[in-house]
Queue: 2 jobs
Job 1
Amino acid sequence: MLAGHQSSIREPGAYILSDWAKFPYVIVRGSDGRLRAFLNTCRHRGARIVSGKEPCLKAFICPFHGWAYGLDGQLKGITKSYNFPDINREDSSLVELPVVERAGLVWIHPTPGASLDLESYLGAIGDDLDHFDLSGLVSYRKNLVIKRANWKLLIKTYLEGYRVPYLHKNTLSQAFKKGIISHYEYGYHIRLSAARTNFLEMPSVPREERHILNYASVYYSIFPQAFFIMQPDYVSINMFFPLAPDQTLWTHEMLYRPSQFRGDAGQEALEKRFNYTN
Ligand code: FES
């Protein structure tokens, strides 16, 4: 599953923490530049090790009894270690999870030792993400809210354009050519492309100068929990995590290209877009 965007994890010690308590992981950039993912649970008695308040990590120190692990997950120190004469430190490293980076995004597998084959998981959708290449973007802001709704219902709301001419009659609807939406599926992933009002101008533009986002908004539902909104100058990543059958944690992170938003006017435009998509 998608864990987040690369921009928050470029420097050694930078980390991404799971937003979802049911799958507590931490992904960290080591001083060797390698990205590693671990279950965020101590091997002693299972306490959460990283709280999210740490600006960056130099090691993992468990707040419960002070056991220390390196950023490679190896157990380095046991407080009052004479109480643990039989412990085998090599068997007590943090539990490592498969993690990979692609197209500026970080992907994780919840099962230790599993193979994380993004190529076959994403198929042609992965080629799309490579094409958009989100690695040059940075995060503007991230928001977390809890909604009283089932998580699948929230994702499904994004998957239909039926409502747009009615619910968004005087706003969103004005920007799109009515009824022209293409739908593509690969496995459980879905791509929707909604034609903008200038769509029919595209054929007159030389092929090498065409950029799809100038003529259509492109949306991706990446199974199981992520939904992307691709716009010419920003990208919104929404994620939906079930807390209960009728309760969902919804995260929204907006990414942008700094060269397209300069100065105060740029900040104002970003704020407007963030509030609009939030
Ligand atoms: S639970 Fe982490 S050191 Fe005891």
Job 2
Amino acid sequence: MQCRVNLPAFLFLYLYMKSFASDNYSGVHPEIMEALQRANHAHMGSYGNDVITEGAVNRFKEFFGDDIEVYFVYNGTGANTLGLRALTQSFQAIICSELAHINVDESTAPEQFTGCKLVGIPNQNGKINAQQVSEKIQRLGDPHHPQAKVISISQLTEYATAYSVNEIKALSEVAKKHNMYLHMDGARISNAAVSLNKNFKEFTRDAGVDVLSFGGTKNGMMFGEAVVFFTKEAAAFFQYIRKQGMQLHSKMRFISAQFEALLCNDLWKRNAAHANAMAQKLAAALREIPQVTITQQVDGNGVFAILPKEIIAPLQQEVFFYVWNERMNEVRLMCSFDTSEDEIQRLVKKIKALVSA
Ligand SMILES: Cc1ncc(COP(=O)(O)O)c(C=O)c1O
């Protein structure tokens, strides 16, 4: 059987159909591709026993300190689910925003692997706060009640907003007070670092985070995320948990090489800064259109906006994006490392044409 790629169709998609659907609709950054090519030589130890993985782990240590544990996994769901698994027992509860990826976009993987109850609480601009969380920590010591053990937050949030250092510290204080852990889903951690103008450590480890899912895929990698433990005792069984959870890559060097490239030469920062800047440009242009209302503060690489209902479907024919909240006609427009100003102008021009038609 001969297999042929339909090249013209591919080129059309590539040249004209970049979308605002998600930062994982983008391809792979060329520097990451080159790193994959460079890693594609010779034979090397498998399952992480190789020099490339050692190098990538050292990069994480440069950012977070020597006394951390880092484990690479395939995807964000795996990083979150297994990180939470390491922190909990099955009679416990994980408190998060009702919008949290772990609560609504990871099927029931967190519940399946941890056995815990996920307690989703209302958010303000994607965030949960210390006061709300404190109110949910009830009946500790009562065997009839799920025992709160983890607070999990997303940075950026699902509304692409960023928690400040003080907001994270306040949540960490609540966690420490009740002998709980603070978990951070950092699928978009680089966008958050750029937005806050802080180094990674300042708003994670130094702010009291115990375990972090460090995202690579949404910021230019092909695949790969890292579970970073700042509280070492929580990592005690993680090598077994990762294997049991089917997230131990045998040709690990190909995740590691990507992280090495992402964390070198500020690629993480260049990519995230570009995506964030594109979101700012898009938001500024949308604010000029009276029929469009931006619903969230634009901290990172996403813009949430209410559009007139009748223009959503025709607009999606031109440039794809997701409707976030059907009831409100609120859409989510995500920018990535390869979003161009031209694409933003094209989108804005199309919106203007549709609202005035
Ligand atoms: C907040 C958040 N966490 C985690 C993930 C990672 O999910 P995946 O398992 O698709 O890599 C995503 C991806 O959409 C996300 O938006």
